Amino acid sequence: MLIQLYILALVLSAITLVASLLLGGARAEGPYDSPDSPRTGSRSKGFWTFFVASFGIIGLLLDGLDLVSAGQAVAIALATAAVIAVIASRALAR
Prior knowledge:
- This protein is mainly alpha-helical.
- Helix content is 74%, strand content 0%.
- The radius of gyration is 16 Å and the shape is flat.
C-alpha cells in the first residue's frame, strides 16, 4: 500500500502552506513588473502545493478506503491532482 506516500504528501503540503502563511505570502513587485508579466515562481509554488495536497488526499481516500486497487489509486490521484493544481494555480494568478 502507498498510504505512507499519501501521508507524506499531505504533511509536505501542510508544511509548505504553514510556512508561506508564517513567512508572508505577499510578493514585492519590482520596477519592471507589470500586471501582465508572468510570475512563474509563484505560479509554480501554487501549482506544486495544490498538486501535492490533492494527490495526498485523493490517494489516501481511494487507497485507504479500498475503493480501487493501489495502481488505480495512484493513476487517478495523479490525474485528478494535476487538473486541480492547474485550476487552482490559474485562479491564484488572477
